[in-house]
Specification:
3-stranded antiparallel sheet; 8-stranded parallel sheet; binds (4S)-2,6-dioxohexahydropyrimidine-4-carboxylic acid; binds zinc ion; alpha/beta; 13 strands
Amino acid sequence: MDQLTIARPDDWHLHLRDGEALRAVVLHTAQRFGRAVVMPNLKPPVTTVAAALAYRSRIHAALPPDCTFNPLMALYLTDNTPVEEVDLAADTAGVIGFKYYPAGATTNSDAGVTDLARVYPVLERMEERGVPFLVHGEVTDGDVDVFDRERVFIERTAAALVRRFPRLRLIFEHATTLDAVQFVRAQGAQVAATLTPQHLLNNRTDMFRGGLRPHLYCLPVLKRERDREALLDAATSGSPKFFLGTDSAPHAKHLKEHSCGCAGVYSAHAGIELYAEAFDSVGKLDRLEGFASHFGADYYGLPRNTSSITLRRNAVAVPASFPFAGGELVPYRAGESLAWELVTGGCA
Ligand code: DOR
Ligand code: ZN
């Protein structure tokens, strides 16, 4: 198969930033995806429906006027989120749910939740109202090895969470381990997971191949080859519990190539092409449409997109960098090539 037409996909986990950085990256996503769940870890974090709607307007303003791209906003859960905000979120189109960052887990997560017990009343209301809970599934304890943080989160936190809130709609964001795949598979249909392109295409050894490669560093960090295989198996299995979420997370080049480099892989420029490559690598291109265009919409109870995109097998060069808010942004595969090309997109 050298050409593939699928229903327009959606990106269920994306970082767009704000201001000049937003304007530098948003078109990459809008050309490929009908909708995206936009993460709230700005400075300051997007903690209220009002702030999310203002941010959503800035995203729309950064796009060409005829562009139909639909940003769906995640709110940043804090220790102090009032229960009433859940009701407001449930009643607001354009707001999709709440994002849980354990305090200190990653970029701009300082305002995150310090102890989940503090937000039990909020989670109870989310369960009642069917509001999705988007989870960064890592513990942050300094004594837990960085490669074990997802597994330990499942043991210490996630297992108890699904027992306490059995109807809570929980998305295990950017799952990176075999443990997470097994956990999600063992739960009912209310628990799902998003998977990033880098975790389907790379393992942790790739991060050190021939030297330290900061542009492959993200959180949760890349794991072992057996984890990558389990994720790719889940993505291509046809199970509706696993769907596309790039976690594309732009950082300026000088902050990635730094003595204390930021976590985040920028993949929006190839946000569907990379998944085509991953699915093709195991002969499962026929499963791409479900994963990329159907299962996420179905999970969130939203209509599937009616327009389509076409991809063609063709080596396309990736630039060494893109302009980015007065600096540069180094994309995934910079200076190398992609195996698939987007022929018809949107928002030209
Ligand atoms: O690698 C990451 N980058 N992981 C996250 O959880 C946050 C993201 C970012 O915002 O840069
Ligand atoms: Zn993210």
